[in-house]
Amino acid sequence: MALITKIKEYREMAGYKQSELAEMVGARRETIVHLENGKYNPSLKLAMDIAKVFHVTVEELFEFVDDKK
């Protein structure tokens, strides 16, 4: 399964830098970078905290897709 995320899209629409978003949710900037690149699966709490910042559901930000064909 591959993680697809819309964090970068929402972050840029809101005008936040990666470091600003990281500070808002109590994470490191590097964590946000990895999340945006789909290289890190967030904890449920972190996913919910990020969704709350953008006033969207977790499902709107994250999607798991089957990468095996």
Describe this structure in words.
This protein has about 70 residues and is mainly α. Helix content is about 55%, strand content about 10%. The protein has a two-stranded antiparallel ribbon. α2 crosses α3. The mean pLDDT is about 95.
Spell out the blueprint of helices and strands.
Elements: E1 2-5, H1 7-14, H2 18-25, H3 29-36, H4 44-54, H5 58-61, E2 62-65
Task: Pick out its properties.
69 residues; mainly alpha; 5 helices; 2 strands; globular
* Coarse structural class: mainly alpha
Could you spell the SSE succession in H and E letters? EHHHHHE
| Largest beta-sheet characterization | 2 strands, antiparallel
Number of strands: 2
Give the neighbour order of strands across the main sheet: 1-2
Total count of helical runs of at least 4 residues:
5
Share of helix among residues?
55-70%
| Overall 3D form | globular
Low-confidence stretches: none
If you compute it from the alpha carbons, what radius of gyration comes out, rounded to the nearest whole angstrom?
Answer: 11 Å
What is the mean predicted local confidence, pLDDT?
93
Strand % is 5-15%
State the distance separating the first and last CA atoms. 11 Å
Short description:
The chain is 57% helix and 12% strand. It is mainly alpha-helical and 69 residues long.
